[in-house]
Fold this protein.
Amino acid sequence: MKILVATQKPFAKVAVDGIKEIVEKAGHEFALLEKYEQTSELLAAVADADALIVRSDKVTAEVVAAAPKLKIVVRAGAGFDNLDLPACTAHGIVAMNTPGQNSNAVAELAIAMMIFMSRCQFTPATGTEVQGKTLGIQAFGNVGRLVGKKAEALGMKVKAIDPFIPADAIKAAGAEPAASLEELYSTSDFVSVHIPATPETIKSIGYDLVSKMPKGATLVNTARKEVIDEAGLEKALEERPDLKYVTDVAPDNLAALQEKFGLRVFATPKKMGAQTSEANVNAGLAAARQIVDFFATGNTRFKLN
Ligand code: 3PG
């Protein structure tokens, strides 16, 4: 079987080497398409692929249609909003992700971003400390829990909310359950967002929630830009000169935000939450193993469709 790794944002070399080794040891053929700029390059590369490993690369109906031999696609990572699941299903393609594999990298970035903003983007301006402050975690999955543990070690009070995790389980994991999103936002000096981009969550964080945050609060987004209602956020930042926004997923209105709000807003130039060699190895090798196992035994653990 031909297993293609197609990544616009490449994995670290150590991860690519590890994927190749797993694929070839199992008797499959390894192919690599990195840093491609045109969809046409991806369409050409998938033409004879039996399996596909991607990161945030978009696997659209067009890509699926161009890959007549494709049997499995694995998103090496957690969020799978880049996969057209109905198109995969229609073509009999199994789609999977690798949950948890890059969570620590994202959690470390969320903590780093909090401190970066508290210390005025590492300028000499007088900042604040995170110790003693309250962190609200929106969605308490793999990343949210790790952020909570790290924040606790920094002396922060940790609150969390998750529509799929009961309050008792949040408590057992060491955080104080918030009764509602409104309560989380209105009582947290930092809110760290860890929700996926779904039809229900897209544009769900906007003026109403952000403007409820306490004085000097910071919204930290290492999830997806789509979950933010950018116009609502802009309005809240305009009305409240004490609020800050930091994001690993540059908003469409970044230029306007930065011009208006200067050091109160920061966005990474390219999504980098999972961009560590450890996360690349964890997620990339997990993806390769899942594919090899699928071809050997039919194992469909982590199937999304
Ligand atoms: C994820 O959903 O796993 C992260 O957003 C990582 O995305 P990336 O592989 O494009 O860095």
Summary: The chain has two domains: 2-101+276-297, 103-267. The chain is about 40% helix and 15% strand. The mean pLDDT is 98. Residues 2-101+276-297 form a domain with the Rossmann fold fold (CATH 3.40.50.720).
